[in-house]
């Protein structure tokens, strides 16, 4: 006889990293940064969504997690941008098969 034991794993942090170079045709770094930030954020959100979808979360939960993601931005002097989005999610419970003790 086999008994199933559910083990709850510790929460995990998922991180999506994206970078975008500045538009060289922009009149200055501030203007170039606007488009670079928009593109980098879109790419990071898409990557984070993909990681979360692999966990089988509902669409509402996905949107809530992405909306509450921690954002770390780094702006280059030339208008380039790097963005890290991170969320903490509960790891799914895992079932482990254990042999049941025999009654004497």
Offer a concise description of the structure:
Helices cover 33% and strands 35% of the residues. The chain starts with a strand and ends in a 5-residue tail after the last strand. It is built from two helices and five strands; from the N terminus they run ββααβββ.
Q: How are the SSEs ordered, and which strands pair?
A:
Elements: E1 2-7, E2 12-20, H1 29-53, H2 59-67, E3 70-75, E4 81-89, E5 94-99
Antiparallel strand pairs: 1-5, 2-4, 3-4
Kindly list the characteristics that best describe this protein.
alpha+beta, Translation Initiation Factor IF3, 2 helices, 35% strand, elongated
Strand order of the largest sheet: 2-4-3
CATH topology: Translation Initiation Factor IF3
Number of helices in the DSSP assignment? 2
Question: What Rg do the Cα atoms give?
Answer: 21 Å
Unreliable segments of 5+ consecutive residues: 1-7, 93-97
Percent of residues in helices comes to 25-40%
Q: What can you see in these coordinates?
A:
There is one protein chain. Strands 2-4-3 form a three-stranded antiparallel β-sheet. A two-stranded antiparallel ribbon has the order 1-5. It has about 100 residues and is of the alpha+beta class. It has helices at about 30-55, 60-65, and strands at about 1-5, 10-20, 70-75, 80-90, 95-100. It has a single domain (about 1-95), classed as Translation Initiation Factor IF3 (2-Layer Sandwich), CATH 3.30.110. The protein is built from two helices and five strands, in the order ββααβββ.
């Amino acid at each position: 006889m086999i008994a199933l034991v559910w083990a709850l794993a510790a929460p995990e942090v998922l991180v999506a990293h994206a970078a975008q170079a500045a538009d060289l045709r922009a009149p200055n770094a501030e203007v170039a940064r606007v488009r670079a930030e928009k593109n980098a954020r879109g790419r990071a959100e898409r990557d984070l969504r993909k990681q979360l979808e692999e966990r089988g979360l509902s669409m509402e939960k996905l949107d809530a997690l992405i909306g509450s993601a921690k954002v770390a931005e780094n702006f280059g002097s030339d208008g380039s941008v790097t963005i890290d989005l991170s969320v903490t999610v509960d790891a799914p419970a895992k079932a482990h098969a254990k042999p049941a003790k025999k009654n004497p």
